[in-house]
Amino acid sequence: MKKVYVVGAGPAGLMAAISAKTHYPNFEVTILERNDVIGKKLRLTGGGRCNVTCNIPIEEFIEYTPKNPKFIYSTLQNFNAKHIMDFFKQAGCPLKQEDHNRMFPKSNKSIDIVNTLMKKLQELKIKVEYGVLVHEVKNDVKTLLTSKGEFKYDYLIIATGGKTYPHTGSDGTGYDLAKQLGHTITPLIPAEVPLVSNDPVIQSKTLQGLSFKDVSLTVGKKRLIHDLIFTHFGISGPVALRASYYVQEL
Ligand SMILES: Cc1cc2nc3c(=O)[nH]c(=O)nc-3n(C[C@H](O)[C@H](O)[C@H](O)COP(=O)(O)OP(=O)(O)OC[C@H]3O[C@@H](n4cnc5c(N)ncnc54)[C@H](O)[C@@H]3O)c2cc1C
Q1: Of 122, 124, 147, 125, which Cα lies nearest the Cα of 136?
Q2: 189 in a domain, yes or no?
Q3: Which of 180, 205, 229 is the last residue of a domain?
Q4: Interface predicted TM-score of the whole assembly (ipTM), two decimals
Q5: Could you give the count of Cα atoms lying within 13 Å of 109 in the half-sphere of its Cβ?
Q6: Which of 59, 127, 178, 226: disulfide with 239, CB 3.0–4.6 Å?
Q7: What is the pLDDT of residues 132-186, one digit of tens each?
Q8: Residue 152: which CATH number?
Protein backbone atom coordinates (compact mmCIF):
# COMPACT_ATOMS: atom_id res chain seq x y z
CA MET A 1 0.00 0.00 0.00
CA LYS A 2 1.39 3.42 -1.01
CA LYS A 3 2.07 5.75 1.90
CA VAL A 4 1.22 9.46 1.84
CA TYR A 5 2.58 11.62 4.66
CA VAL A 6 1.21 15.11 5.26
CA VAL A 7 3.30 17.35 7.51
CA GLY A 8 1.09 19.79 9.45
CA ALA A 9 -2.49 19.54 10.73
CA GLY A 10 -3.62 23.07 9.92
CA PRO A 11 -6.49 23.67 7.49
CA ALA A 12 -4.19 23.13 4.47
CA GLY A 13 -2.79 19.81 5.70
CA LEU A 14 -6.19 18.55 6.88
CA MET A 15 -7.88 19.33 3.56
CA ALA A 16 -4.91 17.91 1.61
CA ALA A 17 -5.09 14.66 3.59
CA ILE A 18 -8.87 14.43 3.10
CA SER A 19 -8.48 15.08 -0.61
CA ALA A 20 -5.64 12.54 -1.00
CA LYS A 21 -7.63 9.79 0.74
CA THR A 22 -10.86 10.65 -1.12
CA HIS A 23 -9.13 10.44 -4.51
CA TYR A 24 -6.86 7.49 -3.60
CA PRO A 25 -8.82 5.36 -1.10
CA ASN A 26 -6.25 2.55 -1.34
CA PHE A 27 -3.41 4.77 -0.14
CA GLU A 28 -2.50 4.99 3.54
CA VAL A 29 -2.64 8.68 4.50
CA THR A 30 -1.01 9.88 7.74
CA ILE A 31 -0.66 13.40 9.13
CA LEU A 32 2.41 14.26 11.22
CA GLU A 33 1.73 17.14 13.63
CA ARG A 34 4.10 18.58 16.24
CA ASN A 35 1.22 19.73 18.52
CA ASP A 36 -1.05 17.45 20.50
CA VAL A 37 -4.18 18.76 18.73
CA ILE A 38 -5.17 19.53 15.13
CA GLY A 39 -5.85 23.09 13.89
CA LYS A 40 -4.33 25.06 16.77
CA LYS A 41 -4.22 28.30 14.74
CA LEU A 42 -7.57 27.52 13.09
CA ARG A 43 -9.19 27.67 16.55
CA LEU A 44 -8.13 31.34 16.91
CA THR A 45 -9.39 32.50 13.53
CA GLY A 46 -12.07 35.12 12.98
CA GLY A 47 -12.03 36.04 16.67
CA GLY A 48 -12.90 32.42 17.55
CA ARG A 49 -15.66 32.28 14.90
CA CYS A 50 -13.56 31.35 11.82
CA ASN A 51 -14.24 33.31 8.66
CA VAL A 52 -14.17 30.13 6.56
CA THR A 53 -14.42 31.71 3.11
CA CYS A 54 -16.09 34.48 1.12
CA ASN A 55 -19.06 33.79 -1.10
CA ILE A 56 -17.65 35.68 -4.09
CA PRO A 57 -16.72 34.68 -7.65
CA ILE A 58 -13.19 33.51 -8.49
CA GLU A 59 -12.53 36.78 -10.36
CA GLU A 60 -13.07 38.75 -7.16
CA PHE A 61 -10.70 36.51 -5.15
CA ILE A 62 -8.10 37.17 -7.82
CA GLU A 63 -8.74 40.92 -7.69
CA TYR A 64 -8.06 40.88 -3.91
CA THR A 65 -4.80 38.93 -4.29
CA PRO A 66 -2.05 41.54 -4.32
CA LYS A 67 0.88 39.46 -5.57
CA ASN A 68 0.96 37.10 -8.56
CA PRO A 69 -2.84 36.58 -8.58
CA LYS A 70 -2.81 34.39 -11.71
CA PHE A 71 -0.95 31.76 -9.69
CA ILE A 72 -4.12 30.85 -7.77
CA TYR A 73 -6.45 30.84 -10.78
CA SER A 74 -6.22 27.15 -11.67
CA THR A 75 -6.34 26.16 -7.99
CA LEU A 76 -9.59 28.09 -7.54
CA GLN A 77 -11.00 26.54 -10.72
CA ASN A 78 -10.56 23.13 -9.05
CA PHE A 79 -11.63 24.05 -5.53
CA ASN A 80 -13.28 27.33 -4.65
CA ALA A 81 -15.66 28.97 -2.17
CA LYS A 82 -18.63 26.97 -3.45
CA HIS A 83 -16.78 23.68 -2.91
CA ILE A 84 -15.82 24.75 0.63
CA MET A 85 -19.41 25.70 1.50
CA ASP A 86 -20.72 22.40 0.07
CA PHE A 87 -18.00 20.45 1.89
CA PHE A 88 -18.97 21.81 5.34
CA LYS A 89 -22.71 21.60 4.64
CA GLN A 90 -22.44 17.94 3.62
CA ALA A 91 -20.23 17.24 6.63
CA GLY A 92 -22.98 18.57 8.93
CA CYS A 93 -21.51 22.01 9.67
CA PRO A 94 -23.50 24.54 7.60
CA LEU A 95 -22.17 28.06 7.11
CA LYS A 96 -23.97 31.41 7.18
CA GLN A 97 -23.28 34.56 5.20
CA GLU A 98 -22.50 37.90 6.85
CA ASP A 99 -21.50 41.38 5.61
CA HIS A 100 -19.03 41.54 2.71
CA ASN A 101 -20.11 37.99 1.77
CA ARG A 102 -18.05 36.52 4.60
CA MET A 103 -18.97 32.94 5.55
CA PHE A 104 -18.90 31.69 9.16
CA PRO A 105 -20.12 28.48 10.80
CA LYS A 106 -23.79 28.88 11.79
CA SER A 107 -22.76 28.08 15.36
CA ASN A 108 -20.25 31.01 15.38
CA LYS A 109 -17.62 28.62 16.75
CA SER A 110 -14.33 27.85 15.01
CA ILE A 111 -14.09 24.68 17.10
CA ASP A 112 -17.01 23.28 15.08
CA ILE A 113 -14.90 23.63 11.94
CA VAL A 114 -12.04 21.81 13.68
CA ASN A 115 -14.38 19.06 14.96
CA THR A 116 -15.94 18.63 11.50
CA LEU A 117 -12.50 18.14 9.97
CA MET A 118 -11.60 15.70 12.76
CA LYS A 119 -14.78 13.70 12.10
CA LYS A 120 -13.89 13.55 8.42
CA LEU A 121 -10.39 12.22 9.24
CA GLN A 122 -11.94 9.48 11.37
CA GLU A 123 -14.51 8.57 8.69
CA LEU A 124 -11.76 8.24 6.08
CA LYS A 125 -9.42 6.42 8.49
CA ILE A 126 -6.68 9.03 8.17
CA LYS A 127 -4.20 8.66 11.02
CA VAL A 128 -2.77 11.65 12.91
CA GLU A 129 0.57 11.17 14.69
CA TYR A 130 0.82 13.88 17.37
CA GLY A 131 3.94 15.37 18.94
CA VAL A 132 6.02 14.66 15.83
CA LEU A 133 8.34 17.51 14.81
CA VAL A 134 9.67 16.91 11.30
CA HIS A 135 13.14 18.41 10.98
CA GLU A 136 14.63 16.88 7.84
CA VAL A 137 13.52 15.44 4.49
CA LYS A 138 15.79 12.99 2.70
CA ASN A 139 13.99 12.84 -0.62
CA ASP A 140 16.60 10.57 -2.28
CA VAL A 141 15.57 7.81 0.15
CA LYS A 142 12.02 9.19 0.66
CA THR A 143 12.48 9.45 4.41
CA LEU A 144 11.43 12.02 7.02
CA LEU A 145 13.63 12.49 10.08
CA THR A 146 11.53 13.50 13.07
CA SER A 147 11.52 13.86 16.85
CA LYS A 148 9.87 10.41 16.93
CA GLY A 149 12.14 8.59 14.49
CA GLU A 150 12.06 8.01 10.75
CA PHE A 151 9.02 7.78 8.47
CA LYS A 152 9.28 6.36 4.93
CA TYR A 153 6.93 7.89 2.37
CA ASP A 154 5.90 7.33 -1.23
CA TYR A 155 4.29 10.76 -1.46
CA LEU A 156 4.85 13.80 0.72
CA ILE A 157 2.75 16.92 1.28
CA ILE A 158 4.28 19.76 3.29
CA ALA A 159 1.61 22.01 4.85
CA THR A 160 3.51 23.61 7.70
CA GLY A 161 2.00 27.11 7.41
CA GLY A 162 3.78 30.45 7.68
CA LYS A 163 5.61 31.85 10.69
CA THR A 164 3.11 34.08 12.49
CA TYR A 165 1.79 33.08 15.91
CA PRO A 166 4.67 30.58 16.37
CA HIS A 167 3.12 29.27 19.60
CA THR A 168 0.49 27.60 17.40
CA GLY A 169 3.21 25.41 15.88
CA SER A 170 3.88 27.18 12.58
CA ASP A 171 7.20 28.83 13.35
CA GLY A 172 8.79 28.69 9.91
CA THR A 173 10.64 25.36 10.27
CA GLY A 174 8.62 24.20 7.26
CA TYR A 175 10.56 26.58 5.02
CA ASP A 176 13.73 24.57 5.76
CA LEU A 177 11.93 21.40 4.69
CA ALA A 178 10.90 23.07 1.43
CA LYS A 179 14.51 24.22 0.88
CA GLN A 180 15.76 20.67 1.43
CA LEU A 181 13.42 19.61 -1.39
CA GLY A 182 15.03 22.17 -3.69
CA HIS A 183 12.50 24.98 -3.43
CA THR A 184 13.58 28.62 -3.36
CA ILE A 185 12.11 30.67 -0.53
CA THR A 186 11.29 34.26 -1.43
CA PRO A 187 11.93 36.97 1.23
CA LEU A 188 9.17 36.68 3.83
CA ILE A 189 6.95 39.69 4.54
CA PRO A 190 4.02 40.17 6.92
CA ALA A 191 0.52 39.90 5.45
CA GLU A 192 -2.91 40.75 6.84
CA VAL A 193 -1.50 42.50 9.92
CA PRO A 194 -2.73 45.57 11.87
CA LEU A 195 -0.94 48.88 11.25
CA VAL A 196 1.11 50.64 13.93
CA SER A 197 1.28 54.44 14.06
CA ASN A 198 3.36 57.03 15.96
CA ASP A 199 0.82 59.75 15.17
CA PRO A 200 0.11 61.78 18.35
CA VAL A 201 -3.65 61.26 17.93
CA ILE A 202 -3.14 57.49 17.99
CA GLN A 203 -0.58 57.70 20.81
CA SER A 204 -3.01 59.74 22.94
CA LYS A 205 -5.42 56.77 22.68
CA THR A 206 -8.44 59.08 22.45
CA LEU A 207 -9.75 57.14 19.43
CA GLN A 208 -9.06 53.69 20.92
CA GLY A 209 -12.03 51.35 20.55
CA LEU A 210 -13.89 53.44 17.96
CA SER A 211 -14.97 51.34 14.99
CA PHE A 212 -16.46 52.30 11.64
CA LYS A 213 -18.21 50.40 8.85
CA ASP A 214 -17.14 50.57 5.20
CA VAL A 215 -14.26 52.99 5.59
CA SER A 216 -12.41 53.96 2.43
CA LEU A 217 -8.64 53.68 2.95
CA THR A 218 -6.15 54.74 0.29
CA VAL A 219 -2.54 53.52 0.28
CA GLY A 220 -0.54 54.84 -2.66
CA LYS A 221 -2.75 54.13 -5.67
CA LYS A 222 -4.75 51.39 -3.97
CA ARG A 223 -8.19 52.19 -2.53
CA LEU A 224 -9.81 49.68 -0.20
CA ILE A 225 -13.22 49.69 1.48
CA HIS A 226 -14.08 47.68 4.60
CA ASP A 227 -14.49 48.05 8.37
CA LEU A 228 -11.87 49.76 10.57
CA ILE A 229 -11.16 49.96 14.30
CA PHE A 230 -8.77 52.29 16.16
CA THR A 231 -6.59 50.43 18.65
CA HIS A 232 -4.09 51.57 21.31
CA PHE A 233 -1.25 51.14 18.79
CA GLY A 234 -2.80 52.11 15.43
CA ILE A 235 -5.58 50.76 13.22
CA SER A 236 -6.97 47.29 12.74
CA GLY A 237 -10.04 45.60 11.25
CA PRO A 238 -10.38 44.09 7.76
CA VAL A 239 -9.50 47.25 5.81
CA ALA A 240 -6.29 47.85 7.80
CA LEU A 241 -5.25 44.19 7.52
CA ARG A 242 -5.77 44.25 3.77
CA ALA A 243 -3.92 47.57 3.46
CA SER A 244 -0.84 46.18 5.24
CA TYR A 245 0.49 44.59 2.07
CA TYR A 246 0.39 47.90 0.19
CA VAL A 247 1.92 49.87 3.09
CA GLN A 248 5.08 47.79 2.74
CA GLU A 249 5.34 48.83 -0.89
CA LEU A 250 5.38 52.58 -0.11
C1 LIG B 1 -5.43 35.63 14.84
C2 LIG B 1 -5.65 35.06 13.46
C3 LIG B 1 -6.93 35.11 12.91
C4 LIG B 1 -7.15 34.59 11.62
N5 LIG B 1 -8.42 34.61 11.11
C6 LIG B 1 -8.66 34.05 9.89
C7 LIG B 1 -10.00 33.94 9.39
O8 LIG B 1 -10.98 34.29 10.05
N9 LIG B 1 -10.16 33.40 8.14
C10 LIG B 1 -9.08 32.93 7.40
O11 LIG B 1 -9.29 32.44 6.27
N12 LIG B 1 -7.82 32.99 7.88
C13 LIG B 1 -7.59 33.51 9.10
N14 LIG B 1 -6.30 33.54 9.59
C15 LIG B 1 -5.22 32.95 8.78
C16 LIG B 1 -5.26 31.42 8.92
O17 LIG B 1 -5.21 31.06 10.28
C18 LIG B 1 -4.08 30.80 8.19
O19 LIG B 1 -4.08 31.25 6.85
C20 LIG B 1 -4.18 29.28 8.21
O21 LIG B 1 -4.14 28.78 9.53
C22 LIG B 1 -3.05 28.68 7.40
O23 LIG B 1 -3.26 27.29 7.38
P24 LIG B 1 -2.07 26.28 7.17
O25 LIG B 1 -2.65 24.92 7.27
O26 LIG B 1 -1.33 26.66 5.93
O27 LIG B 1 -1.05 26.56 8.37
P28 LIG B 1 -1.25 26.47 9.96
O29 LIG B 1 -2.65 26.67 10.35
O30 LIG B 1 -0.22 27.37 10.52
O31 LIG B 1 -0.89 24.96 10.27
C32 LIG B 1 0.41 24.44 10.09
C33 LIG B 1 0.56 23.23 10.99
O34 LIG B 1 1.83 22.62 10.74
C35 LIG B 1 2.42 22.25 11.97
N36 LIG B 1 3.88 22.25 11.78
C37 LIG B 1 4.66 23.30 11.42
N38 LIG B 1 5.95 22.91 11.27
C39 LIG B 1 5.96 21.59 11.56
C40 LIG B 1 7.01 20.61 11.58
N41 LIG B 1 8.26 20.93 11.24
N42 LIG B 1 6.70 19.34 11.95
C43 LIG B 1 5.41 19.00 12.27
N44 LIG B 1 4.39 19.88 12.26
C45 LIG B 1 4.66 21.16 11.90
C46 LIG B 1 1.96 23.32 12.95
O47 LIG B 1 2.03 22.86 14.29
C48 LIG B 1 0.54 23.58 12.48
O49 LIG B 1 -0.39 22.76 13.14
C50 LIG B 1 -6.06 34.04 10.87
C51 LIG B 1 -4.78 33.99 11.45
C52 LIG B 1 -4.57 34.49 12.72
C53 LIG B 1 -3.19 34.42 13.30
Answers
A1: 147
A2: no
A3: 180
A4: 0.99
A5: 7
A6: 226
A7: 999 999 999 999 999 999 999 999 999 999 999 999 999 999 999 999 999 999 9
A8: 3.50.50.60
Would you say the CB of residue 112 lies under 6 angstroms from ligand 1?
A: no
Rounded distance from Cα 90 to ligand 1 centre (Å) = 24
Q: Is the CB of 7 under 6 A from ligand 1?
A: yes
Residues 100 and 218 placed together within one structural domain of the fold = no
Tell me the three-class secondary structure of 19-74, residue by residue.
Answer: HHHHHCCCCEEEEEECCCCCCCCHHHHHHHCCCCEECCCHHHHHHCCCCCHHHHHH
* DSSP bridge pairs for 196: 234
Q: State the burial class of residue 48 (Cβ atoms within 10 Å of its Cβ: 0-12, 13-18, 19+).
A: exposed
Q: Which residues of the chain have pLDDT under 50?
A: none
Query: Does residue 134's CB lie within 6 angstroms of at least one atom of ligand 1?
Result: yes
Determine which residue's CA is closest to atom 6 belonging to ligand 1. 45
- Taking CA atoms only, the protein residue closest to ligand 1 atom 30 is 161
Q: Which residues pair with 143 in a beta bridge?
A: 138, 152
Quote the domain boundaries for residue 205: 195-247
Dist CA 162 CA 180 (whole Å) = 17
